[in-house]
Write a structure and sequence with these properties.
By secondary structure, this protein is of the alpha+beta class. It is 23% helix and 35% strand. It has a 12-stranded mixed β-sheet. The chain has a two-stranded antiparallel sheet with strand order 4-5.
């Protein structure tokens, strides 16, 4: 697979020089601390589609759900599928809803990271403070130091270590010069090779490539962009911090009644600490 990726990459780098096509597809396992349950780590599968001028890092299920719900017809169809799988009528006439029941399309990841390589701008779409928002930042906020005598083999590729202090955390990133794509998972970019592993010490934030292939598929469009309000990065992070520590009261104010926010063990949600739980801590 390694040889075919390298060979086809040379062809595709010329073939997709125009338009919003990707030239490489990378699957990552993204891990982070699950702050609702101390000591637990959550993981999800993310995809990077990277082209010469543009790239997107996203969850494919979220992309599919957003595409479905972008039209009234698709939204209705998806809701019908979900309700049929999730809703159960009990013998006493009451209704139970289990959103983990059945293999039904459901959006669990809100994050999209778009990199406009030509313009040097990162655009981040996500949900902060229980609201969809979007912000931009320039490429030049990420500076690297390359440690050439530190190497690691990942998926058969010889990788070199890069270090960066970025928005409050120190990151180690292992990149492969054999794959000449200056891109990587999440916001990572700017090293002379594809980033296959990025991690930070002390807190279990980690992005590890689990598969790589060349491609000429188009990077899909962003759906429902008018539903995102513009914000600033630090404000979004501060709002999410506040919401995590006051979610129960906010939900009670919004919906009324005795809303309870509990973790998987049925206990009251613990306090959110940015040093332990936020991927960026400089807000």
């Amino acid at each position: 697979m390694k040889k075919s990726v390298l060979f086809l990459f040379c062809i595709l780098s010329t073939a997709v020089a125009f338009g919003q096509n990707a030239q490489i597809k990378v699957q990552y396992k993204a891990s982070s601390p699950f702050w609702m349950t101390p000591g637990e780590t959550s993981s999800t599968t993310m995809l990077l589609l990277s082209g010469p001028e543009y790239s997107r890092y996203f969850n494919t299920m979220s992309q599919y759900v957003d595409s479905m719900t972008s039209t009234p017809e698709g939204k209705k169809q998806l809701q019908e599928i979900q309700m049929k799988a999730w809703v159960t009528q009990n013998p006493d006439g009451s209704i139970s809803v289990n959103m983990n029941k059945g293999n039904v399309p459901n959006k669990k990841v809100n994050l999209y990271v778009n990199k406009d390589i030509a313009k040097g701008v990162i655009t981040v779409y996500d949900e902060w403070g229980m609201e969809p928002r979007v912000y931009t930042e320039p490429f030049d906020e990420m500076k690297w130091e390359i440690v050439e005598d530190s190497t690691k083999n990942i998926l058969g590729y010889e990788c070199i270590l890069g270090l960066t202090d970025y928005h409050g955390r120190t990151w180690k990133a292992w990149f492969s010069p054999e794959i000449p794509v200056q891109d990587g998972p999440w916001k990572f970019h700017g090293l002379p090779g594809l980033i296959l592993l990025a991690e930070t010490d002390g807190v279990p934030f980690r992005f590890e490539a689990t598969g790589i292939e060349t491609t000429d598929e188009k990077i899909p469009p962003m759906y429902k962009t008018d539903s995102y309000s513009k914000t600033e990065r630090k404000k979004a992070l501060a709002d999410e911090d506040y919401t995590n520590n006051n979610r129960e009261a906010m939900l009670q104010a919004r919906f009324g009644g005795a809303v309870k926010v509990q973790n998987r063990e049925g206990r009251k949600a613990p306090k959110f600490y940015k040093e332990k739980h936020s991927i960026e801590t400089d807000y």
